[in-house]
Write a structure and sequence with these properties.
This protein is an all-alpha fold. It is built from five helices and no strands.
């Protein structure tokens, strides 16, 4: 006990000030625990997906290899849309302009957006929604 109750006054002032500013170490520990929990959760999800991928890849059943077939569908569709279709349109236009043929049907086109979504999902690029959490964990919550 100090003279004139200085300990009581100091405790009262620090308690009053602490209500406005808070304990930085407790906040930092809570933030670190939250970041650690997020990282562990992301790691568990990635490990579970890797286990599923390994099980699918090691299966001798050809029906389970759907990713290969889906990959070929994507390759054929993208090559048609970006290589074969423009060449066919150009060659048809040259044939009509030179008088070799009166008119040719226009080759069918399709919306490539759905196919691009499928390709990004297959390649794992669709997991970029986790990028902000990764950046936040690497920068320790500091904004650039």
């Amino acid at each position: 006990m100090s003279i004139l109750g200085a300990d009581t006054i100091i405790e009262a002032v620090t308690g009053f000030v602490g209500k406005f500013f808070g304990d930085k170490t407790a906040e930092e520990q809570a933030n670190a625990a939250q970041e650690l929990q997020t990282i562990i959760s992301n790691q568990n999800a990635l490990a579970a997906q890797a286990a599923v991928d390994q099980a699918e890849a090691s299966s001798p059943d050809r029906i389970n290899h759907w990713r290969g077939a889906l990959g070929w569908v994507c390759v054929i569709g993208l090559s048609y849309h970006f290589a074969l279709l423009p060449m066919a349109q150009y060659l048809f236009a040259v044939a009509v302009a030179s008088g070799w043929m009166r008119a040719l049907p226009i080759p069918p086109d399709f919306q490539v957006g759905e196919l691009e979504n499928l390709v990004t999902a297959m390649l794992g690029i669709a997991t970029l929604h986790a990028a902000p959490a990764i950046v936040n964990s690497l920068t320790k919550g500091k904004t650039p």
